[in-house]
Design goal:
With about 120 residues, this protein is mostly helical. About 75% of the residues lie in helices and about 0% in strands. The protein has a domain of about 80 residues. α2 packs across α3 and α3 crosses α4. The longest helix is centred in the first third of the chain and has 17 residues. InterPro entries: DUF5578 (IPR041090).
Length: about 120
Amino acid sequence: MLHLRVVHSLLAAMGNTDHSNSQRQASLTLKYFVQLFPVVEEHVRKSMGEELYKLFFSNAGDLYMKIDSIQADILAANKVNVTKALYLSDLSHSNVSFYFGHGNQDPVAYNTHFQKEDVEGKE
């Protein structure tokens, strides 16, 4: 999800004052990502600024009620791109490989290996 720029989208949803429930859900979800991935925490803190970040982190569920129009604009117009940082660090391969296998494997060789096993098993 980080590669799909979910952090940018969550910040934008947090700044959308027309939909308070979306603001709340986006804030709670973003807090989860901030707690899970240090690279996300770094980018979110830099994007929000220290004051807004402290307000966000202290009570993410109620942030939508406490921000002013300038802070909402900061969130809505964010330029966060965690994907770029993931490619520069080894995070994209080390954590994702745990769930999906090693990122450097050749997918054709991987599939061929299992196809051969399947054929040999049927013989």
